Amino acid sequence: MSSLPIIDPSAIENLRELNPGDNDEFLREVAVIYLEDTPERLAELEECLASGDVPRFTRAAHSIKGSSANMGAMVLREIAEKLEHQSKDTPLAQLVPMIAEARAAFAAAEAEIRNIAKL
């Protein structure tokens, strides 16, 4: 289990600082996009397992890594980074347990984000 926070408070503050005084409207907008897009990227990882599409798998993992870093979802970012790197030289079937970890990390991040952004 990771020692990283599920959500990094400094990332949330950075998002708030991008549009100060808006009563967290910008934070909510970014959070909604993240919460809608990430399950699609996680599903894409699973689709790539079935099709064996390594480049698409790597891109999906990279996308999850970047958006999770922006949102402060540090545990998911870490898992996505491992998926991205390992997909290049590990058979995708061996990454199935890590995809399950990613889904669990997203569920935890989603709960915290919804609480922080009051969604």
Distance between the termini: 27 Å
- The value of Rg in angstroms is 15 Å
Do you know the CATH architecture? Up-down Bundle
* CATH level-3 fold name: Four Helix Bundle (Hemerythrin (Met), subunit A)
Helix count, per DSSP?
Answer: 5
The largest β sheet comes out as:
none
**How would you classify the helix and strand content by structural class?**
mainly alpha
Strand content: under 5%
- Average per-residue pLDDT, rounded, comes to 96
In CATH terms, the superfamily is: HPT domain
SSE topology string: HHHHH
Q: Summarize the amount of helix as a percent range.
A: over 70%
What global shape is seen? elongated
Taking pLDDT < 50 over at least 5 consecutive residues as the criterion, the unreliable ranges are none
Number of domains: 1
The CATH C-level class name: Mainly Alpha
How many E strands?
0
Could you please describe the fold and organization of this structure?
The structure is a single chain. This protein is mainly α and 119 residues long. It has a single domain (9-117), classed as Four Helix Bundle (Hemerythrin (Met), subunit A) (Up-down Bundle). The protein has 5 helices and no strands. Helix 2 packs antiparallel against helix 5 (96-117) and helix 4 (74-86) packs antiparallel against helix 5. The two termini are 27 Å apart.
